[in-house]
Structures are given as C-alpha cells and as structure tokens.
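ARCHIVE CARD
Drawer: 12
Card no.: 0347
Subject: one protein chain, sequence and derived structure
Cross-reference: see card 0346
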Amino acid sequence: MKSKKVKIGVTIVTIAIILGSAYFLLKEDNKKSDAETSVPVVSKTVKNAMKSSQKGADAILAGTVIPNSKSKIKLDGTRGIVTELHVNEGDTVTNGQNLFSYYSIDNETELKDAELSATNQVNSVAQKREAANLKWDEYNKKKANAKKEETKEEELNTSYMEASNAEAEVASAQIEADKAQLLVDKAREKVSQNTVTAQFDGVIKSIDKDQMNKPAVEGSETPFMEVVDSSVQYVEGKVDEFNKDKFSVEQTVQIFDRNDNSKLWTGKITKVGNLTTEDDDKKKDDENQNASKYPFKVLVDKSETPPSIGQHVYVKLAPKEPEAGKIALPKGYLMKEKNKTFVWKAKNNKLEKTTVELGEENAEDGTVEIKSGLTETDSIVYPAPELKEGMEVKQDAQPK
C-alpha cells in the first residue's frame, strides 16, 4: 500500500515537472514571438543611412507656390468706365500689351474742343498771313514807285508800319496756334492713357466682367483684372526657431505636393529671414506663441510640369551624395562588445553581427568613418534591445 502511494506521488511530481517545463518553454516562445512581432526589423542601405544623417535631413517646411510677380488692377472711377477688353482670361501677354480701355465722355469732349480750337487758330494764322502779305505788297509797290509818283516819305513809313504790324499779328496768331496744338496733344495723351497696358510678361489669371460698363465702386477692394508672371516661381513660408539653423541660402531642396508626394520639384533657398514675421490674431491663437517664426523663400527650378500658383507644398533639404569611397556612418548604428565594434547587418534577410574598423569621428554630424567591414550597398538595421542574430529582416527593406 505504501509502495503504491509512493508510485502515485512520483507520477504526480513527474507530471508537474513536465507541465511546468512546457509552460516555461511556451512562455519563452511567446516572449520571443512577441519581441519579433512587436518591433518590425527594418533595414536600409548604408548609403541611405549616411544621407539620413545629414544636417537638417529630418526638417520639413510647409509653404505655398507664388509667382515672380503679380498685378491686381482695380478700376479708377475718375478715368471713366471700361467699355473694351483687349484680352481674355488665360491669355499670355507681353510687357506693354493693351489689356482694356476706359471711356470718358469728359476726355472725349475735351479732345474735340481742343482740336476745334486748334483748327480755328490755324485758320486765323492763314488769314493774318494773307492780310500781312497784302500789306507788304502794298508797301513794296509804293517804295518802287516812290520817285515816279513822288510818294511822300511819311506816307511810305506809314505803309511800312502797317505791314510790320500785320506781320506781328501773324506771329501772335502762330503762338496761339501752337498753344492750341499743345492742348490737343495733352488731351490726346489723356485719352490714350485710358488704355491700360501690361507691366510685364505674364498670364491673365482673372477678369471680373461684371464691373464693365459701370462706374467704379469707390473703395472697392475687388480687382477688375489680375495678371501673374509665372515665368519664375517661388515657395514662401515660415520656419520656426528650432529648425531655422538647419537651413541656409543657396541650399538645394526638394519640393513635394502636400497631397501627392509623387509630384516632386527641386529648388534653391534664396532667403531665410532674420526677423520674425507678424501673424494676425487668429493665426497666433492656433500656433505656439513661444516659438518664433521666420520667413523663408525658395526659387523653384524650371521644369516641363511646374507646380500651380497657390499650390501648397512641403520643402526639405535635398540629400547630398556621400563622398565617393568613404563611409561615414551615424554613431547610433554602432555597438560595442568585448573591445570590438559591430553593426547589425542584414544578410540573406537574416540579422548577423558584423565587426567594423573605425576611422575618424565627425562630432558635428555625429558620424564615424568606417574603414572596413561595410560597403555602401550593404543593408543594416538600427540597434534595438530585442534584436538577435538570425532574426528575419523585412524583404522590402533590402537594397535594390
């Protein structure tokens, strides 16, 4: 009986040990499985790792595409009403091209009156010239026949004075005619100024035709016509004080459409302002008032499919190609073990430790030169506590 109880006890202990071992092994497997599934193992090429370490590589700015210049033309009620358009929306125009014309009855009346007055003055000059010529003919005739007809000197002097006075009247009439012509020129210039011309090469963006044939509304802020010069484009926006020092003039940048990152353009920074910008109260309520904002401007490179004016975009520094033949890896990828330095390298989609030989350190960029152990096309993984040799690396992260 006692022997049977011992056997039963041994059996129970054995089952307990087996169950405990199974539980422990299952728990360890779950831990391993959790570690492997909770943190995806992602690799990138050494070349891309070096690009991501460049100063400002993580900074992204928001901006809006603007034209080189734009002209919002408002109507001037003192010049009359617009009765004639010389262009349409979407037309391309050149500097000096006629856009639209005013009509002013006052200006037209002034021109007609000036032209009538000038015509009368010209006729007056002609009449006085004819009269003066007759006086001179009369004087010259008397002078030629003075001895024969015994003309008295006093009578001859009187004839000369009459001719001279007639000549003076001609000169006076000519002065008045010249004045009248100046008034005509002035009136014509005023009428010609009723035609508004383009101030630069550009495109007609909009025309508010409802304002035609009506007196201009005093104080109206609505432009009648808008012309934009899109031959050169810029991106304008603001950069906060935390990212300002990551950007500088002449740096090359990439420009992305906010809604479609596949649309990419390039450009160059032309301005990073030193003075903070003034926002309206509504914007200030939505922003961190403890962070100053500085204006920036980017010149967009010309392309066959340029961005649209007013398009919202993101701007980031264009990655520089690493120095040929030199590997400068961010220090975060390096790990120490038994006086050796290694990195996690993906080989055949599996993690393995790879020992590397170090060179000079760049404190500013936070990188260390790798003299041996890696190539630019190798794929590496950023260290994490749960990484172990043999772990699988995502296939889509492998170098192409």
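Annotation on reverse: The first strand starts at residue 43 and ends at 45. Residues 62 and 314 are 5 Å apart (CA to CA).
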